[in-house]
Amino acid sequence: MRVLVVEDEQLLADAVATGLRREAMAVDVVYDGAAALERIGVNDYDVVVLDRDLPLVHGDDVCRKIVELGMPTRVLMLTASGDVSDRVEGLELGADDYLPKPFAFTELTARVRALGRRTTVALPPVLERSGIKLDPNRREVFRDGKEIQLAPKEFAVLEVLMRSEGAVVSAEQLLEKAWDENTDPFTNVVRVTVMTLRRKLGEPAVIVTVPGSGYRI
């Protein structure tokens, strides 16, 4: 899942990003509304965690732009105000969910995952395919009943492949969904991660390489 965190409190923004990365999400961070508009014009995000009171361009205007562009991106709006009227106003702008500060990180993570599921065809919370069972919320993977320990990027790649439901996923698509914008697109990080993932999942191999196209399960 690709997430953009937009928050002018830099310590909070970086802490949220770090936490979401530990949950196997690819996360970019910006600290003002103008930078947010620039990012959403370049990258495809599943979810934008958007502070409402932003410098340069207000969070309301960022939200309006996402709606105006007809993007499938979901918006989780954050605000220091807990007033019901503010929450209603934020939702009426086009936000998909609303979370007042201060918030529990576990709740934010759950809301981000729930919104991420809405950007694609509805799938069950626990994904199962080819003997693999993946639970995004618990960060657990099992093969034929045996738990497999995966690093965050390995988990992220496996989740993208599982969500594709047998369709081929290119290396570029995996890079877009499982890594942030600071990753060099010319590295072999995708190939190496897939190789390690195959080894951990064991035999018979469930990840198939489609020459010239990508990977599928």
Describe the overall structure.
The chain has 217 residues and is an alpha/beta fold. Helix content is 40%, strand content 20%. It has a five-stranded parallel β-sheet with strand order 2-1-3-4-5, sandwiched between helices. Strands 6-7-8-9 form a four-stranded antiparallel β-sheet, covered by helices on one side. Strand 10 and strand 11 (214-216) form a beta hairpin. The radius of gyration is 18 Å and the shape is elongated.
Let me know the largest β-sheet: 5 strands, parallel
Structural class designation: alpha/beta
User: Can you give the helix content as a percent range?
Assistant: 25-40%
Q: Compute the average pLDDT.
A: 89
H-E order: EHEHEHEHEHEEEEHHHEE
Gyration radius over CA: 18 Å
Topology overview:
Layout: E1 2-6, H1 10-22, E2 26-30, H2 33-40, E3 47-51, H3 59-68, E4 74-79, H4 84-92, E5 97-100, H5 105-117, E6 127-129, E7 132-135, E8 140-143, E9 146-147, H6 152-163, H7 171-178, H8 189-201, E10 208-210, E11 214-216
Parallel strand pairs: 1-2, 1-3, 3-4, 4-5
Antiparallel strand pairs: 6-7, 7-8, 8-9, 10-11
Helix pairs in contact: 2-3, 6-8
Protein name: Response regulator transcription factor
Keywords: DNA-binding, Phosphoprotein
Domain Response regulatory: 2-116
Keywords:
217 residues, alpha/beta, four-stranded antiparallel beta sheet
Short summary of the structure?
This protein has 217 residues and is α/β, with parallel strands linked by helices.
